[in-house]
Write a structure and sequence with these properties.
The protein is mainly alpha-helical. Helix content is 68%, strand content 0%.
Amino acid sequence: MEEPHIGQLIRQELRRQAKTNRWFAEQINVNPRTVNKIFQKSVIDTRQLLLISRCLKVDFFRFYSNFLK
């Protein structure tokens, strides 16, 4: 099993929910250009991941938990 690419997973979920990058940036209080940087990250700060998980109402930590199994 390959380690999850968290940025890609976040982008996929954002698209699935039909939310814009601008909306997402406003929700997590970052510059819209920063959103694209988040999508490119394979590793992310846990505090930022918690904020993103709350914003999109998805437990992104589970991807890491599933990787441990």
